[in-house]
Amino acid sequence: MKARFVLIVVLFFAVAPAFADTGRQVDLDWLQIIAFATHQTDYSGTFVYQHNDHMETARITHISDQNGEHEKLENLEGPRREYIRNNNEILWYLGDHKAVQVERQYSGKSFPALLPEQLSALNENYLIHTAEQARIAGFDTQAIVFQPKDTLRYTHKMWAHRDSGLLLKAVVLDERRQVVEQYTFIQLKIGGDIERTQEITGQFTTTLQQQSHFATPPETSTQTATNDWKVVAVPSGFKKIMEIRRPLPGKKTDVIHFVFSDGLAGISVFIETLGNHFNRKLGLSSRGAIHVYSKEKGDYLVTVVGEVPPRTVMQVADSVRYRGQ
Amino acid sequence: MKQEISALMDGELFDDDAEAILDKLKRNPDKHDEWRTYHLISDVLRQSDHVHANISIGIRERLQAEPTVIAPHSRVSHNVRWFALSAVASVMAFTLVAWLSIQIGPETAPQIAMLQSNALHSASLPANGLDDYLIAHQEFSPSSNMYGMTSYVHTVARHQEDKQP
Question: Do A57 and A191 reside in the same domain of the chain?
């Protein structure tokens, strides 16, 4: 009898942590499912994007076929702004055809799947847990919350379609639980026949008024030239994932670009000579949950961009140093 | 006086002389600095762990007096020279290509002309302010893994340019 009791106690302690682990594993599985769905599902829909006091609608189409990924995003209000991607080639219309810009992606990122490093970074910096189930745009969804462990980053809440894993709603909250920005699908078609326009399947480069091609730079030029600069006070949990010397549109000289990631949010640091910028306003700007902070440092301009609170981008910008100064 | 202080600290003086010097020191506050300096020297010479010196004030003063150099000066003249050199090289290359195209035949010429105009366009492309940074950032940001293209809504959505939050 006593032996049986001991066995039960031992079993309890052996099994309970295993169950706790599976709960956590389920949450992490959701992330993989979301990431996979975002890049491997065919869908087309309209969503509402809200930030500060603004609200506007945008349409998105995503097709994944044997030739790779094709996607298109366009705003439905105001001057036409459009983004079209065919695998690594990106086409931008920014404002009434004035500037059309073709770029080649540097990362050569081929999806899907979150890297194990990204998952473990997410786990270290956020408490991830599943929340309520809700119905959005006519689909059943599961909510997942990313609660940061400090106030240097935002809380993210996402609602994923329970069948496909597609994100149907996402909210970014600050430390006082105020909504910084959010988007919600109001109409969505998943799978089946998604309308393919010419431009989305890749025959678009013929009628451009202006275009610029940025060929992917050779690997060797990326690492060597940038180590003169250091970012000293990167918030804990952010790791450097990239360091590159690259051109930016309208800039005469190349720009040094660092990217830091905590698994969910990214912080970019751009360093360029002052001659590069024409009347760029210094200080803080924002686009929804993305904050931008620019400051002069000697003869250079430092610009920090990230999906993090204003003081985080400011802290990072203030900590950029040239050769240990 | 200096030698006397030094001798006193080394314990080389008789009691009477030592007291006389200590008296002098008490009466002349301006000799206190000498007293401190000699103690500092002896501390440093003996490499004692704890050095009685308030050197931070001096360092701070000298730092404040120095001009601040935060970042290196960009090599403008250097760039101009390189630009001039590359311009010369481009002109030479273009001349060579033009000459070659005449030699080879008219078919290849249009292609070369197109490449040239492309390069021109990229140089005259306007900067879009914040957008260029956002576009560059979004490509690498981990958020695009989860949000996919919807994260690009920041660039597509209408915004008052560079507004203050």
Answer: yes
